[in-house]
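Q: Got a minute? One more chain.
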Amino acid sequence: MLAGVKDGLKLGLRIPIWAVCFFYVEEAVDDLRDTRDFGSTVVAGLTVSCIFSIKNGFNAPTTVRTSRAGLYTGLVYGLLQDAIALARGRRLGYLDYLKSTWKSDAALE
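A: Always. Here it is, folded:
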């Protein structure tokens, strides 16, 4: 039973560290790009999953699988963040860009 508690504490310390890394990378990318959208979350998911794979010494197929999971997780989490921000009234730069592109395409026809 003591071994289970010990392993639980180890895992309980490792997971928050990776979560903090994810949010730190996301915030750093947001600051570098001067925008807050799902792109930063996707980059953070991929970056942290790749670092996690390298640190744990995964082979190439496992690294690809872990990176794919980081990509999908970052994409879903980022799009959910953007949906909440849009519901709160924040403008999203990529949506404004797409709208202006569609309007200019329609004007050319």
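A: The chain has four helices and no strands.
Q: Perfect, thanks.
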